[in-house]
Amino acid sequence: MMQSPEAARSARALTAELVKAWTYFWPERKLQGGGERGRGERERGGEREGGERKGGEREGGERKGREREGGHNAGTKRRHEDEEASSNKKLVIDHSVKVARHYNSLQEVGLAARSRSRIFFMRNFNNWLKSILIGEVLEQVRGVGSQQVCVLDLGCGKGGDLLKWRRGGIHHLVCADIAAVSVDQCQSRYEDMKRKSYANEKLYSAQFISADCTKEVLSEKLDDPALMFDICSCQFVYHYSFESEQKADMMLRNACEHLKPGGFFIGTTPDAFELVKRLEASDSLSFGNEVFKVSFQSKGSYPLFGCQYHFSLEDVVDVPESLVYFPLFEHMAKRYNMRLVLKQRFSEFFEEKVKKEQNRSLMMKMMALEPFPCEDGGRQATDSTGEYCHAKEHCGTSGRPLGTLSRSEWEATSIYLVFVFQKMS
Ligand SMILES: C[S@@+](CC[C@H](N)C(=O)[O-])C[C@H]1O[C@@H](n2cnc3c(N)ncnc32)[C@H](O)[C@@H]1O
After folding, report:
1. Ligand 1 within 6 A of 214 CB?
2. At what residues does the UniProt record annotate the site feature described as mRNA cap binding (predicted)?
3. Among residues 37, 61, 137, 333, which one has the fewest Cβ atoms lying within 10 Å of its Cβ?
4. Where are the strands (E) in 168-244, listed by range?
5. pLDDT value of position 218
């Protein structure tokens, strides 16, 4: 993609500014608090990270004040630059093979086995959330007159979203993933769906590509190289690319290069601020509960790319992932003429969308929340103590049964955020 010299210069300047913001943001707090922060400070830190813009502004103000102090700050700045340089050296690590191997090895399980999973409701909840996101973006695309909607599912996995695209009545789907076994299973699922589709149903056409989307140019693999997409959907995938700048940029290029003007790049990814907040609040290098665990190699310094942690979730995920520093992601997307239109934590997205009757009824259909108390002598997803205290408390006040997730599942799903970028014309 060509860039004017002015755009390249201003992009470089902005990157430098973001690098500064990042390196000042985290290590500075450690230097001030000496590592052992009290509860009050931790909570204030939480507030600041939650309200990202406010935090950024305040941090900017504090930074100026410190810069005026001179000597000590010059030393601190140098230390940050040294840290930055040494962390950049780590970028040679390439986890693609490990990631592909892990996802390839996952067994496809039937509905019966899935419904026995400890995280059955959380997975349904995540699926509900994706369905709402996809449904709303499809509505917007149609609103501006696109009738034959083309979609790129970047990191499609085994085809968990094939049905959502069918419900959305799209025209064409391209599915791409690094895990070749998953792509094959995705294709079989699509073909099965096609065989079983109604006689008068016009199911979308589809292409399946097995490729490392952080290294290969997808457009070179398209059956129709001139194909332009209305939507690129990248669900629970983009963070794998933040291992290096080159990889993050290639995945962005694949997501955005073939989007029509006005088209959308949507996705879900862990919120780096939330992960770091939980890490800093932990006494060790990891945190989690009975369903998930996140382990870092160190804390206090967080490189822009290749800030790796290990993520495991029940029997579904067990891989190295990288923090996505969102302001940098947003900035990089500008190179592809993309404007951020929505960034919301899962909790915020849920609270907003659940207000709509039709979203609530989809939630029931998808069994996206667990009934509490459980019905007719059944059992909750877990017997562990404390997992439903919040629900008990709520029931006590309202006296009515409710839909919920166990505490551990809420803690796992609330790591994530939803993003929507739109291509400017
Ligand atoms: C958590 S799964 C999500 C699958 C699917 N998007 C969904 O929501 O059900 C992450 C997927 O990202 C894929 N992935 C990871 N790194 C990738 C890369 N470099 N290129 C393409 N796909 C990648 C994995 O193989 C895996 O299928």
Report:
1. yes
2. 158, 164, 189, 239, 321, 416
3. 61
4. 172-177, 205-210, 229-235
5. 97
